[in-house]
Design brief:
Layout lengths: L8 E6 L8 H16 L2 E6 L2 H8 L11 E5 L25 H5 L2 E2 L2 E2 L2 E6 L2 E6 L10 H13 L3 E5 L8 H6 L5 E2 L2 E2 L4 H16 L2 E3 L5 H7 L3 E7 L3 H8 L3 E4 L12 E8 L10 H11 L2 H11 L2 E2 L2 H10 L2 H11 L2 E2 L6 H18 L1 H27 L6
Parallel strand pairs: 1-2, 1-3, 8-11, 8-12, 14-16
Antiparallel strand pairs: 3-14, 4-5, 6-14, 6-15, 7-12, 7-13, 9-10
Helix pairs in contact: 1-10, 6-14, 13-14
Amino acid sequence: MSAGRKIEELVIWHEFDGPGDTSVEVLEEIGRMYEARCGIRVRAEAMSIADLGRRLTRLPEDGTGPDMAMVPSDMANYWEAARLSEVDAEALEGIATASALDTMRIGGRLFGVPVLMGNHLVLYVNKTHYPELPQDWEELEREALRLREAGIIPLGIDLGQAYNFIPFLTAFGGWPMEEGRVSLDTDAVEQALAFLRRGLASGKIASLDGATTLLERFSEGHIGAIVTGEWIYNYLNRRLGDRLAVSAIPAIGGRRAVSMCSSIGLIFPCGSLSSPRGAALRAYAAFMLSDECQRLWSDRVQRIPASIAALQQIESAGSANKRRLIEQLRASRPMPVSPYMIAGWVGMEEGLRRLPEDGAALARAAMQERARAVMAEVDDYVDQLKKGASFV
């Protein structure tokens, strides 16, 4: 129990920290509801996704970390480093969807409670600029000249974030992992990089900060369409209203651009489910999956619930845009739950950073070189964990 923490208090870490991520509103409301009903305060601590990952893998041995964390499901692969409690899968069967549960399983063991589904990329379109939703890249390019002459950026994306590279990589037949290791030194990677570099050079694509400038300029009408995550839908819907449409990321040369997807769920570091707080933590997790709370996520901030009942309700009665969000979730490919994916993200970001000046071939080489170095660090880290080393 961390210093100064009251007995009647649970601490949850999360990364709902960007101005466009309105999910924090519901997380805080659920905490207030739980406190009112159970008499236990839930203290939420926000941090960046990078800080969250770093802190979870360097928790002190004395149990002074958080009681739980709400994280993207791939962080379940921190089960050894963060000493995560295993979750009773049978207690969740029939409540959460099977696909949601699978996102937090490793080797058949469940290391988290999925709360939300999604985390996939979609195309958001301002219907003022695109009266017809572009289904493929050729349609988008035909509109690009008209939009650029009017001072409108045809397509915006944040290429500083490696996750946004995935749909372009899959459109050229690629995937960042092969046989359990990161594999970025491929023709598909180079073709995707070359495609993006041509788009940037021609002005058809602009890379802008995804947490601020991209959203602001799109909301103000200066960008025709953007590629970003389903988690931004509520923010954009509030800003654009009827002008906003959700669509698939345009196909490239007849090939679908497939996003990754995952879940967001609760994990329990330092074996907290076996601590004196275990009963309160299980009650909080069950409350998160209740119809009441799942509807809050869906209705208040437009997220995709993990519970079977809430998801069925959206599919039968949700708006056209919400149904398209779910359609694109079903068309996505689950994110690998592997400790090596961090090497993939770091490697891809290095190559994307170098792409404009160095070109596709050198960026491809830089990606794999950086990924290989990080994979070696992961190997060493796992070896040290097995030897009982501390990383405080």
